[in-house]
Amino acid sequence: MSNYTIVKADNVFDHYENSDVPGEFRRLTPELDSQQLAVTLIRVPAHSDFEQSTGHFHDEIEEIYIVTKGVLTMRFDDSIEKVSAGHVVRVAPKTIRSHRNEGNELVEMWAISKKIDHRDATKVDDFWPPSDLAKQTKS
Question: Vertex 28, ends 24 and 30: CA angle to 5°?
Fold first, then answer.
């Protein structure tokens, strides 16, 4: 393993490319050969519900979200917040979270957490009602 790795995020596989989920989900951890941290780039197009009214939580990991472009509408348990570029969010384990882009510009967000070698996420269906400002599919 090298002492450092440089990866262009746009060259990493987009897990949502051939799906109906609006946006991009690029796990950079394997390409970075990261031993301790998990890093994912998430892009949400304008007026799109990335998680399609669902939410999720993690049993053991804490996540950091760094919004670098646009404004996300984010839900944490029962709280709804607008989070704009330049803001960083920490979400504790067990906190149900979701996000959607109700704005006019693309949102870019980086998710960072401790790397673990097993599944830790639990999906929560019907976490919040659909938004008239954010379509739930690409089409």
Answer: 135
Supply 127's token pair.
């976490």
Q: Are 100 and 109 in contact (CB under 8 A)?
A: no
Element of type H or E holding 56? strand 55-58
Instruction: Report in angstroms the alpha-carbon separations of 38 from 31, 50, 76, 109, 131.
Output: 11, 20, 21, 14, 30
Q: Do 87 and 22 touch, CB atoms closer than 8 A?
A: no
Tokens in use for 22? 């609006």
Backbone φ and ψ of 29, nearest 5° = -55, -50
pLDDT in tens, 86-101: 999 999 999 999 999 9
Backbone angles phi, psi at 12, to 5 degrees: -90, 145
Split at pLDDT 50, 70, 90, the class of 139 is: confident
Nearest to 42 by CA among 67, 65, 25: 25
**Does the reported pTM lie above 0.85?**
yes
Tell me: the pLDDT tens digits for 31-46?
A: 999 999 999 999 999 9
Give the amino acid at 76: F
What's the first-to-final CA gap in the chain, in angstroms? Answer: 42
